[in-house]
Amino acid sequence: MALDALILSRIQFGFVIAFHILFPAFSIGLASFLAVLEGLWLATRRDVFKTLYLFWIKVFAIAFGMGVVSGVVLSYQLGTNWSEYSRLVSPAIGPLFGFEVMTAFFLEASFLGVMLFGWKKVGPGLHFVATVLVALGTLISAFWILSANSWMQFPTGFARAADGRFLATDYWALIFNPTFPTRFAHMVMGAYLTTALVVCAGSAFQLLKRGSGDFPAARTGLRMAVGMIAVSALVQIVVGDMSGRVMAKYQPSKLAAVEGFWDTRSEQAFHIVAWPDRKLQANRWEVSVPKAGSLLIAGKTSAVIPGLKAFARQDQPPALIVFWSFRAMVGMGVLMALLGFTGLELWRRKRLFDFKPYLMACVAMGPAGFITVVLGWITAEVGRQPWVVFGYLRTRDAVSPVSAGQVAFSLVAYMVVYAVIFGGGALYVLRLLARGADEAGAPPQGVASAPGSALGLGAQDANQEDEA
Amino acid sequence: MSLPLDLPTIWVGLLALSVGLYGVLDGFDLGIGILFPFARTPADRDTMMNAIAPVWDGNETWLVLGGGGLFAAFPLAYSILMPALYLPVLLMLLALVLRGVAFEFRFHGRKRGRRFWTVMFATGSTGAAFAQGLILGGFIQGVTVKADRFAGGPFDWLTPYTLLVACGLVVGYAMLGAGWLMVKTEHALHGDARRWGWITTAAVAVFLAAVSLATLFVHPEVARRWGVESGGVDWGQLLKLSPIPLLGAVGLAVIVWGLKRGSHRLPFAGGLLVFVSGYMGLAVGFTPFVVPYAVTYEQAASPSNALGLLLAGAAFALPLTLIYSAWVYWLFRGKVGEEGYHS
Question: Is B119 in CB contact (< 8 Å) with chain A?
Answer without folding.
Answer: no
